[in-house]
Amino acid sequence: MTPTLRQCLLAEVLGTAFLLIFGTGAVVVDEQAHNLGHGGVAAAFGLIVLIIIQGLGHVSGAHVNPAVTIGFWAAGRFPGRRVLPYVLAQLVGAGLGSWAVRLLASPGSLLGATLPAHGAGQAFGVELGLTFWLMLVILRVTSSYYEQGLLVGLTISATVWLEALVGGPLSGASMNPARSLAPALLSGNFTAAWVYVAAPLAGVLLAVLADRLLQLKPVVGGPAST
Questions:
Q1: How far is it, in rounded angstroms, from Cα 119 to Cα 199?
Q2: Residue 64 within any structural domain of the chain
Q3: Which of 108, 136, 155, 201 is least surrounded by Cβ atoms within 10 Å, i.e. has the fewest?
Q4: Average confidence score pLDDT of the chain
């Protein structure tokens, strides 16, 4: 049976909420206990992405990211009429997740907000590059050419884990406007917030272009055309 739009939106709310609860929650826990470290936080993001994909992917696709939804739409693999409802569901989920994290955070905590380490310009470049690679991997491994299943979730989550591990110290490795806007809103810190909206959107559009250039086409007169 095909999931209804209501079921898809519920899945996106839940998935994005738990992305924030376990991802940014790991940041807040490390602030208090100092026992996770940067590697532990990166692992938390990678693991929760894997769990969300495997648990909710068959319902909504487990986008949990407005940039990913827009990327799928730009690639012609997602209906335009569902883009706004999906994005709104993701923003609501992120807000709920960040609110839950706030209940555990110490006073003055930024709730896992993403902030540039060396200026907005560098952060923009890092976020653009990270989101480009994430979206390109997503598009490639979810194409009909590849076999679906656990390997898809592992590949995407490993990409998130690696990018958080390497890019986190520079920009926070958000790659997700909802993930960045929710902590910014609840903590009241909007430093370079535009970077974490504009760079992921630019990154996914570049990934869609690259994906089209990488798509295999049958050679005229070759075996595929006979």
A1: 14
A2: yes
A3: 108
A4: 93
